[in-house]
Amino acid sequence: MIDRARLERRIAELSRVGGRGTSVTRLGLSAEEQSARDLVGSWLAGRGATIRRDPAGNLFARIGGEGGAVLVGSHIDSVPDGGRFDGALGVLCAVEAVETLLEGRADLRRPIEVVAWADEEGARFGVGLFGSAAVFGRLAPGVAERRDRQGISVADALRALGERGDPALARRGAKDFTAYLELHIEQGPRLERAGLALGVVAAIVGIYHARVTMSGQADHAGATVMTSRADALVAASEVVLAVERIARARPDTVGTVGEIAVRPGAKNVVPGECVFSLDLRTSRDLDPYVHEVLASVERIAHARNVGASIDELARVPVTTLDPKLRDALRRGARSVGVEAPELTSGAGHDAQNPALAGVPTGMLFVRSTGGSHKPSEFASLDDAALGAQALANTLREIAG
Ligand SMILES: [Zn+2]
């Protein structure tokens, strides 16, 4: 049985690493993220696990001998001023589930590896799902040279950890793993509305991230007549509205422009350049949606006589999770008294990378309230314990 007191104690302990009250700031490849890895590693080292950090900063704790392992875990970084549960709960519950199996002397025929992925959020370098992408050979080109706001590159950050600065060295074959399981808070209201503690993820939305630069002509706001302007912000504004219109017209689709910068950025200067983000997500076909948005960027730029360049940062297709593992997780949930519904995840997850690399992958959602990516995000101890027990029972089934 799950040790609730231990789980509760460790939720608090981990939240103090980079945390203050319920707010946690543990950015990818930072010293705080490393302290969190050390803490998680210390819990399983005492259980005879082999602890290893890979060249991308991921932590693996392996129990058992040779052969394809069942991989279980989540990420350990957070967004700035994030909460205690996003990612962390999946690592905490994986550790708790494995310790419970070991304490119960479960007969495990397959090795189990607990993983704490590095830099899932991408809050520091702008590239999410970093650690899992490195392991499954899905890193975007040039990612090691991306820099944070202080000018520190991904390669520099890895070297500061004592690694060689090349995350691609973390690559492992999909054949190293027989399955990947991830528990994560839902980050949405559906389980809360349904009054259920657990849900099984059927699919994860496809995600496209890009940075768009619209280049017009900076001019005097008084002396430049309206008909001879090339206003980059007006063009960008039209794109923002086009994204909304296109997303609304498609089922199960969202689109967001969440960042925008205007240059030179003075009230009496016509905006000469505008740089903004694109976050496009759908659980249908991603590529036609992306294509429609990018075509509208081109059309608007042309009509307004500004230049447009698009820097694609990530494109992850819609991920369907493994039907057998979905069934196994439903049985795991049923074993703790929860009839878990199937849900689609609107957030991206590390689980996409093993799944797209061909590793059978399953995800379990735990009910959460108070939003997500902020200090108010919350999963109750009751729900966390149910999740950990369901995960342990599922692990016993697929590793036993
Ligand atoms: Zn997360």
How would the blueprint of this fold be written?
Elements: H1 4-15, E1 19-20, E2 23-24, H2 31-45, E3 50-53, E4 59-63, E5 69-75, H3 88-103, E6 112-117, H4 130-135, H5 154-160, E7 177-185, H6 190-194, E8 198-204, E9 206-215, E10 219-220, H7 232-249, E11 253-256, E12 260-263, E13 269-270, E14 273-282, H8 286-303, E15 307-316, E16 319-320, H9 323-334, E17 342-345, H10 352-357, E18 361-366, H11 381-399
The structure holds zinc ion.
Residues 75, 86-87, 120, 184 line the site of zinc ion.
Q: CATH topology of the largest domain, which one? A: Aminopeptidase
Measured by DSSP, the beta-strand proportion falls in 15-25%
Query: pLDDT average, as an integer?
Result: 96
CATH architecture of the largest domain: 3-Layer(aba) Sandwich
Q: Spell out which ligands are present.
A: zinc ion
Indicate the percent of residues in helices: 25-40%
Number of helices: 11
Radius of gyration: 22 Å
Shape: elongated
| Spatial gap, N to C terminus | 17 Å
Number of strands: 18
User: Biggest sheet, open or closed, and with what strands and sense?
Assistant: 9 strands, mixed
Query: Class of the largest domain in CATH?
Result: Alpha Beta
Query: How would you classify the helix and strand content by structural class?
Result: alpha+beta
Number of domains: 2
Name of the CATH homologous superfamily of the largest domain? Zn peptidases
Residue windows where pLDDT falls under 50 for at least 5 positions: none
Q: Order of helices and strands, N to C?
A: HEEHEEEHEHHEHEEEHEEEEHEEHEHEH
